[in-house]
Specification:
Elements (H helix, E strand, L loop, with lengths): L1 E6 L7 H8 L5 E4 L8 E5 L2 E5 L12 E4 L4 E2 L1 H13 L6 E5 L3 E2 L2 H14 L11 H9 L12 H23 L6 H15 L3 E2 L1 H10 L4 E8 L19 H8 L6 E9 L2 E3 L8 E2 L1 H10 L15 E3 L1 E2 H11 L3 E5 L9 E10 L2 E3 L5 H4 L3 E8 L16 H14 L3 E5 L7 E3 L1
Parallel strand pairs: 1-10, 1-11, 2-5, 2-10, 5-7, 6-8, 7-9, 11-16, 15-17, 16-20
Antiparallel strand pairs: 3-4, 12-14, 13-14, 17-18, 17-19, 20-21
Helix pairs in contact: 3-4, 5-6
The structure holds guanosine-5'-diphosphate.
Guanosine-5'-diphosphate binds next to helix 1 and strand 3.
Length: 424
């Protein structure tokens, strides 16, 4: 069976933890989109890890971890992470890399930095991992597939052709040093040596795995609201964050994705620019940020403080719908245990009219939150294993959010660890 683990919100919902947990019963974990621009934090018996490109299944001996064709593969970052995991005592994970995955080129990272610099105050808040320039090139058909690394003459000719246009921009728009085709060729040869043992036809491998009855997990990055089509465009990421894209980014039939576990946070956090209706500020935000996640809400890639807000049922309802959710995993609920009262956003007021439908960006920017305040539970719920053992106000909070979003909350995460989970 194929299951997807995806985000309902702006990312950082705790997908890494849920994937790591579900991976106990999986054979294969596939990353199908995104790149090293966002991170997952995973806490397990080996310690605490911030992964950016490795699939969250790498900690288990029984799983195969796959980089699908939809991923923006930064080869040196991937192997740095791979080696780091091994150096911390994790047995060498089984890895496969799609021959159709495309490669983040060194100049993608440079262009990402230069463009953010050029935009100044109007920048996207990019992590500068090269993701936007990478996907631009992919769709402009000047990207490099892993399979192309294996033909020297072809590679040299293509590099010459591609860097011609890059150098015009470097010289005249950014006023930066030009690219050299020979140097890039040498770099790509070193990439080839790193990936060669792992390259495979992932789509064919997964087709066979499905026939053999294997359990496959598709691991999403970021969340619904960062999807380029359905999110808060243009403050989105550059690849689709939706479960549906799992079929494309892994190369498997869409009808095989039977379960879509959408991870939804019990409060909100976001990184980068863009409208964030339930955002809070000042001391209220600082306290939630400090107590949030596991050791505070700071970016796993950049370390920058995340923007904080109350649970937004309008955004989460939409986020779950657009994913095609079958199950909601409601996470970091334990964090809210310090509050006397908990505001929840239940509607958007746009020019005096209240809606519960998530609007496109131009209207979203005008939206003011309609809040409802629920009573807190004022206890630490970590360690609780059964739904009935949760404090009454905590159950009421879950049930209220569930009713607002309209999708079943079947898992509740009450701590960062693999076993901090309540099934319902
Ligand atoms: P991802 O990108 O969606 O995987 O999310 P992140 O890893 O960036 O953010 C989730 C953070 O919250 C990590 O530090 C996790 O260890 C932590 N976390 C996940 N689930 C829970 C939970 O239920 N409670 C607490 N306190 N922390 C959690």
């Amino acid at each position: 069976m194929v299951k997807a683990v995806v985000g309902a919100n702006w990312g950082d919902e705790g997908k890494g933890k849920i994937t790591d947990m579900l991976a106990q019963e999986a054979d294969i974990i596939v990353r199908f989109q995104g790149g090293a621009n966002a991170g997952h934090t995973i806490v397990n018996d080996y310690g605490k890890f911030a992964l950016h490109t490795l699939p969250s299944g790498v900690f288990y001996g029984h799983t195969t971890s796959i980089i699908g064709n939809g991923v923006a593969l930064n080869i040196p970052v991937f192997f740095k992470e791979y080696n780091e995991v091994i150096s911390r005592g994790v047995p060498a994970p089984k890895i496969l890399i799609s021959n159709r995955a495309q490669i983040v080129m060194p100049y993608h990272i440079l262009f990402d930095q230069y463009e953010e610099e050029r935009l100044g105050g109007k920048s996207f808040g990019s992590t500068k991992s090269g993701i936007a320039p990478f996907y631009s090139d992919k769709y402009a058909k000047i990207g490099f597939q892993v399979s192309e690394l294996f033909d020297d003459d072809y590679l040299k000719e293509k590099l010459q052709r591609v860097i011609q246009t890059k150098n015009v921009l470097l010289e005249h728009l950014y006023h930066k040093p030009l690219l050299d085709a020979d140097e890039l060729f040498k770099e790509l040869v070193s990439y080839r040596e790193m990936v060669e043992p792992y390259v495979c036809d992932v789509s064919a491998y997964l087709w066979q795995a499905i026939k053999d009855g294997k359990e496959i997990l598709l691991e999403g990055q970021l969340g619904s609201l960062k999807d380029p089509d359905h999110g808060i465009y243009p403050m989105v990421t550059s690849s689709s964050t939706l479960a549906a894209y799992g079929a494309i980014g892994a190369g498997l039939p869409p009808y095989e994705i039977k379960k879509i576990v959408t991870v939804c946070k019990a409060y909100s956090s976001a990184v980068g620019a863009g409208a964030f209706v339930s955002e809070i500020f000042g001391d209220e935000a600082d306290e939630l940020r400090r107590r949030g996640g596991d050791g505070g809400e700071y970016g796993a890639t950049t370390g920058r403080p995340r923007r904080m807000g109350w649970c937004d049922c309008v955004a989460s309802k939409y986020g779950c719908r657009i994913q095609g959710t079958t199950d909601v995993a409601f996470t970091v609920l334990d964090v809210l245990g310090y509050l006397d009262e908990i505001p929840v956003c239940v509607g958007y007021d746009i020019d005096g009219e209240v809606t519960t439908e998530f609007p496109p960006t131009a209207l979203l920017e005008k939206a003011k939150p309609v809040l409802k305040t629920l009573p807190g539970w004022k206890t630490d719920i970590r360690g609780i294993k059964k739904y009935e053992d949760l404090p009454e106000n905590c159950r009421k909070y879950i049930e209220f959010v569930e009713e607002q979003i309209g999708f079943p909350i079947t898992m509740i995460s009450n701590g960062p660890g693999r076993n901090d989970i309540i099934y319902r």
